[in-house]
Amino acid sequence: MKSDKNSKNFSGAKKLKLGFPKGSLQESTQELFKKAGIRIYTSDRSYFPNCDDDEIEIMMVRSQEMAKYVEEGVFDAGLTGYDWICESGAKVHEVCELVYAKSGFRPVRWVLAVPKDSKINSIKDLQGKRVATELVNYVKKYFAKNKVKAEIEFSWGATEAKAPSLVDAIVELTETGSSLRANNLRIVEDVLSSTTRFIANDAALKDSWKRNKIENLAILLKGALAAEGMVGLKMNVSEKNLKKIESVLPALKRPTVSRLDMAGWVALEVIIEEKIVKKIIPELKRAGAEGIIEYPLNKVIY
Description:
By secondary structure, this protein is an alpha/beta fold. It has three domains: 2-104 and 196-226, 3-Layer(aba) Sandwich (D-Maltodextrin-Binding Protein, domain 2); 108-194, Periplasmic binding protein-like II (D-Maltodextrin-Binding Protein, domain 2); 230-296, Alpha-Beta Plaits (2-Layer Sandwich). It has helices spanning 2-6, 26-35, 63-71, 82-88, 136-145, 178-182, 202-206, 208-226, 242-248, 277-286; strands spanning 16-22, 40-43, 46-51, 56-62, 77-81, 93-98, 108-115, 130-133, 151-154, 169-174, 185-194, 196-200, 230-238, 256-259, 265-273, 290-296. The strands form four sheets. Strands 4-1-5-12-6 form a five-stranded mixed beta sheet, with helices on both faces. Strand 8, helix 5 and strand 9 form a beta-alpha-beta unit. Helix 3 packs across helix 4. The chain is globular.
């Protein structure tokens, strides 16, 4: 019964306290929630966004701080990168992995980088050298694991500009590598691969109402991600052309086939990657498909 009380705010309504990432993940996370069916309305002047789900209470904090706040119970759950969970050392439960970042749907990488003309070609070459990074705790452990003693210093920003004038190397986050190339840097090796994680604390997961709410959110968010880059296709097909139509569709995408009132005809429906639709639709038309409809998807729940 104690956990049920903790689920409620002062008005008596049950609320899930959710930490929302402020900064690089903010826009993409807001869009993901929208596709999941939850609209979040942010303001430049407020750290407390409004939400069309009355059971969620949101506060925005930076991803770097999220795991600690979830661990301490300030938030029941939150979204942050695997990198910042590792960096903080927070003990949290990872509800699910969500593979998206600021500008794409792939993991991001923390890389060890040096100026292009540097003689440093491996981490071993950094013995006694100076390295700048925002991921200090993790990088210290990484260097210790590789038995390299180097001075690891915290970078407050503009890390790419610090080598070689201020440091010998950097460990920096990259999605595409374009910023590193623009600053005349080359990658020596990957240090950590990271994706977004939906996290919660033990107390929240022991509360039956909160656990159910968290699990529901995870299903919706994963469904929204699964729908990314996918579309649905509907069409009518005569039974004599069905095999021909199925041969045009990707081999792993088995369609749903339903009988129509019109004798000898069926309705076919399939989910496929949007990038191949422009090639497939003309082929489907030539193979005998009629009434072809393409429609967008918000969620795909497997």
